[in-house]
Each structure stands twice: as C-alpha cells, then as structure tokens.
Amino acid sequence: MKPVFDPTQYKITSKANWNTVAHEYHYNWADQQVGPFKSTAEVVRLAKIKPDDKVLDVACGTGVVSKEISQFLGPQGLLVGIDLSRTALSIAKKSISFQNSNFVEMDAENIGFSFKFDKATCQYGLMFFPDSVKVLESIRNILNHNGMLAVAVHGLAEDVPYFSTIMKPILEHIPDIRPEGTPTVHRFGNPDSLRAELASGGFSDITVTKYDFVYKPGTFDEYWTDYMRSTANSIRSKIEGHGDAVMEKIKNDARNNASRYEKDDSIVFPWTVLVATGINQ
C-alpha cells in the first residue's frame, strides 16, 4: 500500500529540493535556454507584454521568464515574481536589472496583493501545484478584467522521454517511491486536459499551442548523472536506500530505454511543450 499524499509535506520537500538544485537548474538549463527552455520566449510572446503592464510571474524560479518579460517593460511597467524557493529567488534578483521588479517568497495557492496585474505567466509550475485550480483562481483574483495568463507545461510521457526514460523503471522497481496522488510532470501534457484545467480555474478564450523541441544530454552516463543529481534529487536517497542491485536494474532498464534515442553514442531527446493562454473575463 502506497503512503498517503500530504500536500503540506509535499510543499516542504519541494521547497527544500529547489533550494538544493536551483543553481544547477539555472546555469545548466534555464539560463542556457536549452531543450524545453526555448519556450521562454514563446510564453512571453503569447502574453503580449506592453511597456506599462503590471506582470506577475508565478513560480518564477530563477527568473528566466521574468528576465524575458523585463525586456518589454518600460518605466511605468511593473514585474513581480513569486516562488517558494529562496535560493531560486536570490538568483532571479541578481540576474534581472529592471528597476521596477520585486521577487517575493509566496505560496501560489495563496497569492495576496493589494493591487491588480495586467498579465500573469507561469512556466513549468502548474502541473506541480497540489491544488492547481486554487492557484488559477488565486491568479484570476489579482488580474484585471481582460487580464491574460500564459502558462507552459511539459507534454505527455511519450513526448518527453527525458523524464520517462528513467522514471518508468524507477516506478517499476520501486512502485511506492511516491505517495498516491503526488502531482506529476506530465499531469497536463494532453492539450485537452490543460484547456479544461484553465477553464476550471475560470479562464476563457483559451488557446493551447504545441511546440516540439530537442534536448541533447550527451552520453547515457552523462544523462544518468544529470538526472539523478537534478530531476530525481528529491527521491534519490529513497532509490539508493533500496540497495545497489535495485539501482543497477533501474540503470540498465533506463539504458535500454534510452538506446532508441541514441545517435553516435549521444542521446537526442524530443521534447514537447504546451503553452496555453486564457483571459480573465
């Protein structure tokens, strides 16, 4: 029997994990705009930022979307980023020179501001919120009438093999690795599911655009090391706790899964991203 999902403990664990991996996530992935982070420019483009807009970047992380947004804002514009990770927020503050910007440690399920925003963005955060509808409703509450939300999420497991190549054998060999009901990276990878979620949060005029990117993690061993150190960091100790034999089985199965994406000993992963926009009417 799997352990019961505890949303509060999940947030505590997520916060601790992001404080640990934020630097590597930023400097090796997000800031380099490799693979899925080619979507950053698309999220901001679809948000149609105007110079005097007041913009909220939800789950802003290390600030890559915020930095892109700041390029479109003028002296009358405002940029606010919120996130649970202090380490990620510190990186965001250092990387953005826009004067009218502020970064705040805040839970996206309980957004609280005394003024309204014109636009809101959220890249690779929506699928990880325990109560995503509550987050969407919180965003709507601080958006002006006809304000716009733009969100990016990863595609389905078969369309984002970077995650599933290793996670599938982890789940096969350690089925109780995470509590039943834990949010997953592919949660809104189906366009219809993403569209329905924004509608449940009260948004209208919803559009979903699909992008197909490519990510090259190097050799299998390089990919394995990066994945275990970053993506699987929060569960790595649990995996290692099952012993070397189980770890070796997971690695061998993952190597076999990765072989279909190898070209000249280097892996080339396809990576589907969905970007949705919705209006607060």
Spell out the key features of this protein:
single chain; 281 residues; alpha/beta; Rossmann fold; eight-stranded mixed β-sheet; 10 helices; 8 strands; globular; SAM-dependent_MTases_sf; Methyltranfer_dom; methyltransferase activity
Q: Give the integer mean of the pLDDT values.
A: 95
CATH level-1 class of the domain at 7-156 and 182-214 and 270-280? Alpha Beta
CATH fold node name of the domain at 7-156 and 182-214 and 270-280: Rossmann fold
CATH homologous superfamily descriptor of the domain at 7-156 and 182-214 and 270-280: Vaccinia Virus protein VP39
> What is the CATH architecture annotation of the domain at 7-156 and 182-214 and 270-280?
3-Layer(aba) Sandwich
Helix segment tally? 10
Fraction of residues in H or I helices = 40-55%
Radius of gyration: 19 Å
> In sequence order, what are the helices and strands, one letter per element?
HHEHEHEEHEHHEHHHEE
- Alpha-beta content class: alpha/beta
Low-pLDDT residue spans: none
